[in-house]
Amino acid sequence: MDVNVIDDFLSQEDFEEVRDLIVFNWDFDWYFQKEVNGAGTDCTKDFWNWYGTHIFYKKDFPADDCHILYDKFIPRFKEMGIFRSLMRIKGNFYPHTETLKEHAPHVDYDFSHTGALYSLNTCDGFTKLYDGTKIDSVANRMLIFDASTVHNSSTTTTAAARFNINFNFL
Questions:
Q1: 82 exposed, middle or buried (CB, 10 Å; 0-12, 13-18, 19+)?
Q2: Three-class SS of residue 98?
Q3: Under a CB-based contact definition with an 8 Å cutoff, are residues 96 and 159 in contact?
Q4: Among 104, 97, 118, 95, which residue's Cα sits nearest to residue 168?
Q5: Would the pTM count as exceeding 0.90?
Q6: How far apart (Å, rounded) are the C-alpha atoms in residues 147 and 60?
Q7: Residues linked to residue 89 through DSSP beta bridges, in sequence order
Q8: Is 81 helix (H, G, I), strand (E, B) or coil?
Q9: Which range (19-23, 66-70, 97-101, 156-160) has the least confidence?
Q10: Residue 33 β-bridge partners
Q11: Alpha helices in the chain, H assignment, sequence order
């Protein structure tokens, strides 16, 4: 599968609606994860190696706030021909750090599938792919790739946090 980077994935109005729901909503629930990617280190040793997650959809179970993501993203994925069977939609919140930190490499699932990573804000954070290519976090940018290949995330030093949404399809 080719790597595809699409800027301005949603209209500005749709982008702002999704961003406002997740980033600027004080009532939005983030769930603390004591380590990123099960790397064997955790925030009790590496104070920066934690993140917040929010599961919108997993194992045929949509969360209450999932409908907006269906309405905005699924039609675009269908147009692109990458939507077949949805496995998961997960929000990620990576905290600010004084120096940029890379998280441990991982695969989302250990079988071939499509991953789509949508950035909700612009910062110096990135996603590094198996070949070393770094895809910058740019608001309203979608990265589409084979998420069964090794990749990793990072923190940010230029924003309060790095926010994205991870979609996984069969």
A1: middle
A2: coil
A3: yes
A4: 118
A5: yes
A6: 19
A7: 57, 167
A8: coil
A9: 66-70
A10: 51
A11: 12-22, 67-80
Q: Beta partners for 126?
A: 136
The tally of CA atoms less than 13 A away on the side-chain side of residue 130 is 12
pLDDT digits (tens, 9 = 90+) for 115-128: 999 999 999 999 99
The answer to whether residues 139 and 66 touch, using CB atoms and an 8 Å cutoff, is: no
Residue extents of the structural domains in the chain: 4-38+46-117+134-142+152-169
Rounded Cα distance between 84 and 78, Å, is: 8
The pLDDT tens digits of the residues spanning 40-96 come to: 555 556 677 789 999 998 877 787 677 888 889 989 999 988 888 889 999 999 999
> Which of 163, 41, 49, 138 shows the shortest CA–CA distance to 97?
49
In this prediction, residues 123-136 reach a mean pLDDT of 97
